[in-house]
User: Fold this.
Amino acid sequence: MTVLNLFRRTPKTELPELTEVLDSLGDAVLVFNSRLQINYVNACWKTLTGYTHKEATDTCFSDYIHPEDLKNWIDITRQVSRGGDSQYLWFRLIRKDSEVRWCEIRLQPLRAGQPFPLTATLCDITPQVRDDEISKASHRSLSGLVNRIPGMIYRGRNDTRWTMEYVSEGCKELTGYGRDQLLNQTQLSIGGLIHPNDASRVWETVQRALQQHRCFELYYQLLHADGQFRQVYEKGQGIYSSTGAVLGVEGIILNISPPSD
Assistant:
């Protein structure tokens, strides 16, 4: 049964008032006038902000927005009031107790073809944003750790050039070349830097390990950009599809050359 049919079959004396329906919602509902002042808020507004309906009425919504997010708020109100589609915005809302909460607002005209009044729904997305921020912070921390390792962490293709799809910042110290010079390049590759006396042995050792789905360990000489060969140690493993096909290789290469005098 649709909501419309339910209301048609329900005696008018039993139908809830519109304000009762709006106050039952878990999101804040707002109506703005042409000066972007609040004309109406439902009960959820107080839960979200700490301000009562009376305190909020006739105040500017911008009073509740973090100063760094005001420009974005002004931009979407202009778009909607000029006949644009409904707009979404993530912004920081300042509660009555000064706590900052991340919110998402959806803004649209109340009546099609008329710039005002505007209506909006507002929900608290702080937990989601915090999870995103924690994830980003963890990623930054991990990236920093990887790039501080005194060696090159890599992921590459299983071809004779060992074409790199990812290398850590340690590639510069190890090879003398930056990441942009080593990633997906045709003229310069790790395979091309391996000493000719070691190249065949490296390739064959890795292929045997991949066929047996085991890690490989290698010692060989790698040509540095300064024209000198470095003795390196490499440990890696294959990357496989669900069917067992080899998708690539990943591992770490360390410089084990004795320090120069």
About this structure: The chain is about 35% helix and 30% strand. The longest strand covers residues 229-240.
